[in-house]
Write a structure and sequence with these properties.
- Helices cover about 45% and strands about 15% of the residues.
- The protein is α/β, with parallel strands linked by helices.
- It folds into two domains: about 70 residues; about 150 residues, no CATH class.
- The relative contact order is 0.15.
- Strands 1, 2, 3, 4, 5, 6 and 7 form a seven-stranded mixed beta sheet that branches.
- Helix 3 packs across helix 4.
- This is IS5 family transposase.
């Protein structure tokens, strides 16, 4: 049986993606597709926003599962290519009036893997298998402005930040980053709360300041995870990064 459904997005998201797909089809000289660019955009958004499976989408759009896989992958890779670079995001933070950003990390849940990969992708902190993503958030509105490629879930946030060269890049851009206790000892322009139970009055004041500014930053990844594809990603772990970048491009809108 087939039934109609809804996607909790504005038509601007559909138009944005459809325009990119039309331009891409023209660039590669694609003459005919079973679905129009608008239909392909709708299919990809249903997968990302609602987490609809390939089989369900294939039945709903009247195409094969392999075709759905190709269409979704094409749309995701196209959107991911338009996601802001780390340099562009730091320039944005450098011009926000405070030269300030929030550095945060999250682990996106994935299925268990086989062999050595199963242990590599297991996050002891979160007690599930996942992919580590790092992000930069503009504290003015709590908007996510950059997201990293994915690393195995066992990767510590500080190690991930160094792997992506976030700390040195922020220092070169003279942007101060506020982070949680997991980034303590990062150096550069990264500021994190003090650890420990017996803190001095000045240390407690410092922690309250950092946490009060970081509060809106929690919204950055919270918005990302309203896209149900991230409830539990069941594709290759290496696809989590492109999926996150694609969603960020959609969240930022046409100006991206």
């Amino acid at each position: 049986m087939i039934y109609p459904g809804t996607i909790s997005l504005s038509t601007a998201h559909l138009t944005h993606l459809a325009e990119h797909l039309r331009a891409h089809r023209a660039a590669i000289g694609s003459r005919w597709r079973k679905l129009t660019a608008g239909q392909q955009a709708l299919l990809a958004l249903a997968h990302l926003r609602n987490g609809d499976t390939y089989a369900r989408l294939a039945a709903g759009f009247g195409v094969g599962v392999a075709t759905v896989w190709r269409y979704v992958r094409e749309a995701v890779d196209l959107l991911a290519a338009f996601a802001p670079s780390l340099t562009a995001a730091l320039w944005r933070l450098a011009s926000n009036g405070h030269r300030l950003g929030i550095l945060d990390g999250t682990v996106v849940r994935i299925d268990r893997l086989s062999g050595d990969l199963d242990r590599l992708y297991y996050s002891g902190k979160h007690h599930h298998h996942g992919v580590n993503l790092q992000g930069l958030i503009d504290p003015r509105r709590g908007d996510l402005v950059w997201i990293s490629d994915g690393l195995p879930g066992s990767t510590h946030d500080l190690t991930a930040a160094r792997t992506h060269d976030i700390i040195r890049s922020a220092a070169r851009a003279d942007v101060e980053l506020l982070a949680d206790k997991g980034f303590q000892g990062a150096g550069g322009t990264v500021t994190s709360p003090h650890k420990g139970r017996k803190l001095t009055k000045d240390q407690k004041t410092h922690n309250r300041m950092v946490n009060s500014v970081r509060g809106p930053g929690e919204r950055g990844f919270a918005v990302l995870k309203t896209w149900r594809i991230f409830t539990k990603v069941r594709c290759c772990p290496q696809r989590v990064g492109p999926l996150a970048k694609a969603v960020l491009t959609l969240e930022l809108g046409p100006e991206s």
